[in-house]
Amino acid sequence: MTLVGGMAQSGTPAHPGAGGSGCAGTRPVAAHPQQVKKGNWLTHRLDAVSLSTKLISIILVLLLVSGGIIAFAVRQLVSAYIIDKTDTQLSRQSTLVLNSISELQQSDNFGTLGLIDYYVQIRDSDFNITSTPVVPKLSDNVISEPVLPVSGSSGGVEFNKPYTTAARVQMSSGGDVSRTSLQMASAPWRVIAVKWKMNGNGTTPATTGVAFIALSLHDMQDTLAIITKYFLVVGIAIMVFATVMATLAIDRTLLPLKRIEKTAAKIANGDLSQRVPPAPENTEVGSLSSSLNQMLSRIEHSFHEQQETTEKMKRFVSDASHELRTPLAAIHGYAELYKMQREYPGALERADQAIDHIEKSSTRMASLVEDLLSLARMDEGRGVNINQKAKLHEIVAESAEDLHALDPGRSIRLGGITVAGGDAPLVSGDGTQPMPAHLAFVPGKVENVTLQGDPARLRQVITNIVGNIHRYTPADSPVEMGISVVPASLHLVDLGKMPSTDVSLDQFIQAAQVAASTGSGRRYAVLQVIDHGPGMPGKARQKIFERFYTADPSRAREKGGTGLGMAIAQSAVKAHHGLICASETFNGGLTFTVIIPMPEEAPQASPSSDGVAPAKA
Question: What angle do helix axes 218-253 and 51-99 make, rounded to 10 degrees?
């Protein structure tokens, strides 16, 4: 039985073969709709894969491709090296083999040759086979011969140029052939054709011919198979190791993104207080986390502001409706009463009373509507022109005169403001004791303080404070009004955005202490109106700037208050980027503090005696 196997013949002259056919001038064919849908489906499926899976898959594909290219390159290199060594051996030892045919036959008979054996076929000058003196024999009586040109034909073979040809395997009938022997016999051959000449003797003439000398490439195939198995085993181990390490590394790398994802899910559920865990800002994730946290802070701040604005609007509409209903009901009631009693005796006197009540209710309603309009305009950023010059010392002096006109028996003192307390002791009713830092009134001359602002609105602020003192404190309780310019180290801080609480006032006082010790800081106009009346509890002071808030509603209506005065004062001060606070007066009472930033180019304030208001003991 004869088999033909092995590698395709290479290195031989090219034979003409069937030519390929092609089409010229073809045009592209439009994709079928089903193909487009299939592509879209594949894209959607890929988009549904997680990022970590995509990264791991990309790494594995790159490793697989790189490993395959390296294995292919190594196989080609080893194959070329072995073929080159075989060609060198054939070229250099062809003459020795021809001259040692008898020795090779004898060695072959004894089976002392190695796995790579020579095959020799002798032909005459016309390429007719004359003999095959050396044919390697393998185990299991298997014979492997190279496929050579037929007898009498050169087959286009070039002399002294090795080429590769397939093997023809012959096996004995009825014998069991091992797989190893069959693989060895099926290995291709490397063949070289050389000319040879046999010198004749006295009886035999000299002859010439062609000798085909071949060596089996089984060693090369065996080496390539070992290399392939090695790369396969190592490649599988590397793929497993790379999969584990890539999974751990990518999971570790994407852990901040997963945290961001969980934080985003919590925020989506309504928890705006969540923040992305910080990371070094020199990394992409760290920069993203920082940007997201800033964005979340702004969103949360805006959301809370919107909530507060909505709540204030609801409360404002409710309170305004309630406050307007009272004077409207009074007007409507007295008008109906007048209609009912105008035919009775004494109708004229009752009409005068009704008209008087109607006038009072309409006056209250007009005042309420005016205050509401003022608040609405300031909420919209209108109604305050801060591009004017406002002389606070004149406003304070005029307000003191107004209060003196309302309450002639009240003692009113004017002066300045300074930062006191801290390490300095203050004298109290119990003796000398240390007091925390605070703003203290210093009686004396009033400084000329001019700043950039709306004098009408600032006058309204002081008037509302003075009006509260007139309505809610005894007419004989003393009042102090002070104004000074105080430097404070509050860089890049907008007082208008700070809450009107004692904490904000303490922060300003601490900044003023820092400025006093360092000699630097921005200048602020500080105005205080101090009364020694009944004062207000802490909870009430926290609500004093809320709209329509009155500690005693019945007394407020009796005194003509609307509950909007302090809200208007707060809005006006905030429009000037300032701060207004209500704090407890030492030894009882209420202190209103107004702090407004001075322009940087404003000159220093100078003492003046023009701001002293008349005072009556």
Answer: 160
